[in-house]
Amino acid sequence: MVAAARDLLEESGAEKLTMRSLADRLGIKAPSLYKHFPDKTAVEVELIAHMLTESAEACEAAEAEHPGSLQALTDAYRTYALAHPHLYRLATERPLPRHALPAGLEDRAAAPLMRACDHDVDLARAAWAFAHGMVILEIHGRFPGDADLATAWKRGARALHP
Description:
single chain, mainly alpha, 9 helices
């Protein structure tokens, strides 16, 4: 069910992810979904957990290859977000349902960045805000077509972590 919800989300966006559309995708009646998920929010929480896990894995891999490199982390973060724009938007454009996520998942997702920033919480928050701002603007097509985003990403990472 979660895989079908993810496919639907990735194809059509969060606006089209409904219990009815998910049931149709699965070939079942919508009320049958409620045996597994109490509501659409529960489905979204599962998808957000998948996004946090996968982005953590991407950043952990970048960290393993380039320890301490904020540039490597921002590259991995950007690559993941652009590959999954609807999932990324679902997970980041509204309040995070921390109470419903698996214990420790948010910390795991933040850990590579915290290590790259020498556990400086303020620097890590600034770096995440930079990466999120850049990627969400890119997802929404807000940069001019001739913008050199690769250079902007590198310069931003260097500014935060020379």
